[in-house]
Design a protein that fits this description.
CATH superfamily: Aldolase class I
Bound molecules: 1,3-dihydroxyacetonephosphate
CATH class: Alpha Beta
Number of helices: 11
CATH topology: TIM Barrel
Shape: globular
Strand content: 5-15%
Largest sheet: 8 strands, parallel
Distance between the termini: 15 Å
Order of helices and strands: EHEHEHEHHEHHEHHEHEH
Helix content: 40-55%
Number of domains: 1
Strand order of the largest sheet: 7-6-5-4-3-2-1-8
Radius of gyration: 17 Å
């Protein structure tokens, strides 16, 4: 059985004090053991304190990015071993904001994925089409290319370390969500594509999250779809009550 997951991507929000406050509210409100796996991804400066604060909870901590090289002259970058040294073993890769603002190509992302897998890290791999792709009916093609060029080089064994996050760019931070049917249609396409390129078992076991304007008022309907295994949440993960409502949306 594949896992259901709710992950909060906090992006470049919250300083140390704000992070501590959000964490204490989340911990206070998480009164029952969640059915889904819960994760939060704070900024690099707040990773260690978040990891420490959540040690006695079921909530996992993920990084929002990582460099593909082992170490060296890459000013401003963070390596896999640095993350692991503070206990963080999950990393988000390929977010559309990294692709758009920091020029992360499918090739660079393939390297990042490989580095994460070599380091035995779990990867939340993000991908999704832009508005013009959907308008010109190219969304399946674009998504398939993103998966093929950055992810399908991994071994069958490595899939146990992969979580997928389908995030249509036109739905991120815009208030416009993919309809539950649009999400289901794409998730089913992805699962079929994985079955064709790998095998049925891998396709069935990989969790595919939806991301893009998921809120407490639309989550239940989206998460109820057969091939949607939870969400990668931006805006709504910054408010403890909303985030906990999402965690309890299954
Ligand atoms: O980018 C996202 C999560 O990674 C989604 O962001 P929003 O939930 O703010 O649309």
């Amino acid at each position: 059985m594949r896992k259901q997951i709710v992950a909060g991507n906090w992006k470049m929000n919250n300083d140390l004090a704000e992070t501590q406050e959000l964490l204490s509210h989340i911990k206070m409100q998480l009164v029952k053991k969640p059915e889904a796996e819960v994760m939060v991804a704070p900024s690099f400066t707040n990773l260690y304190s978040t990891f420490e604060a959540l040690k006695d909870t079921p909530i996992k901590v993920a990084a929002q990015n990582m460099h593909q090289s082992k170490s060296g002259a890459f000013t401003g970058e963070i390596s896999a071993s640095m993350l692991k040294s503070i206990g963080v073993t999950t990393v988000i890769l390929g977010h559309s904001e990294r692709r758009a603002h920091f020029h992360e190509t499918n090739d660079i992302l393939a390297e990042k994925v490989n580095t994460a897998i070599e380091n035995d890290m779990e990867v939340i791999f993000c991908f999704g089409e832009e508005l013009q792709d959907r308008k010109s009916d190219k969304h399946f093609e674009v998504v398939e290319k993103q998966l093929k060029e950055s992810l399908y080089q991994i071994s069958e064994d490595a899939w146990s370390k992969v979580i997928l996050a389908y995030e249509p760019v036109w739905a991120i931070g815009t208030g416009e969500t993919a309809s539950p049917e649009q999400a289901q249609e794409m998730h089913a396409f992805i699962r079929k594509n994985i079955a064709e390129n790998f095998n049925e078992e891998i396709a069935e076991n990989v969790s595919i999250l939806y991301g893009g304007s998921v809120k407490p008022n639309n989550a239940k309907e989206i998460f109820a779809k057969k091939d949607v295994d939870g969400g990668l949440i931006g805006g709504a993960s910054l408010k403890a009550t909303d985030f906990i409502a999402l965690v309890n949306s299954f």
